[in-house]
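Hey, quick one: can you model this chain's 3D structure?
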Amino acid sequence: MEETMPGKALTPYKGDLIKSTMPYYLTIAVMISILVAITYFFLSALVTGSVGSATSYGLVLGILTWLYITPLTTCFLYIYMYKHLHDRNYGLVETAFSRAIIVLNRLPVYKASYIPGLLSNLGLARLAQGHYQSAESLFRDALSQAEGLSARSRSKRWLASLCVLYNNLAVACLRLGNYVEADLLLERGMKLLENEKNQRYRFYLAPLQLAASVVHSELGELPAAEEHLHKAQEVLRQTPRPSSISPSARLLDVQCDIQQALIHARRGDFAKADPICDHILQQESALFSTMSLKSFKLLATEYMNHQGYDRSEALLESAYAIARDHPFHPDSQELLSCFEKQLQLTDRQSEVKDMRSWLRPVLIETKTDTQT
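Sure thing. Here's the predicted structure for all 372 residues.
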């Protein structure tokens, strides 16, 4: 289920948003049209006194309402989610999904096959806010339910959902430092998709391979990290992208670039890292989220260690455009400490004190309000 150039407005890719949400709008239109038509026939039968027809239409209307409430709610939620993930309003997404799940669980309507997706997207909103343990719990619950439904249905239609959930849970484990479980989850997802009969879902290998690259990179296993990254890039180049996740596909491209630059930098090959870093800094801000903060900080740190202060500062300033709006995110706080180090290394110690007026206004305002 979503940003770094200073001075650039956060502009969502409207074409991608329309393309991604169009299926949901069409589904809503079809379902509401059917319900309106059946309701019309039901009321007409009541007016004309046709008890048999009214009973039949009433029964059909009841069944369709039982079936349609959850998918209609889900479609509206996904449209809402796409908009606010691009705006980085993760709290609004979390509130909407949380309340919807509570209401749907209380209503006597069909919902079994939709709840795992709703839990997963709620987990993404929590993950984006830095609440990693909460996100992990939600992903585990969603994965458990999805695996049960998949086993009962014995259908491949759950394949993509399972791989997305393996990826999401692995990312949460990665953020919590549980690298072994993250690697095992990613392997399970890749094995599901590497079967020749499942080429239809091959695109979902890309996020799994990218996450595996990050795991091995964090463990210092750079050859394995690069191998997984190349596989992710190959999938992105050669595989058609599902229209429903086209904004995520663009984000994957840029995240691959960040990972590639980081691997080169950690090897000390800045001749290869530099052009990739410059390309990253030229991207539209809508491509990044709070999930990008750690990657930017790690890459900036490598440049600081190499005394490439111009690029490290550009990376930090770009990331701060996101961090400023999310002062309580754990990566935001680490980013600010990294920025202080940048100023000290560039003999600008006096500016460290000034940071409280120009770099940390949100933190200062929040702290002041709390004390008051």
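One thing worth noting: Confidence is low (pLDDT under 50) at residues 1-14.
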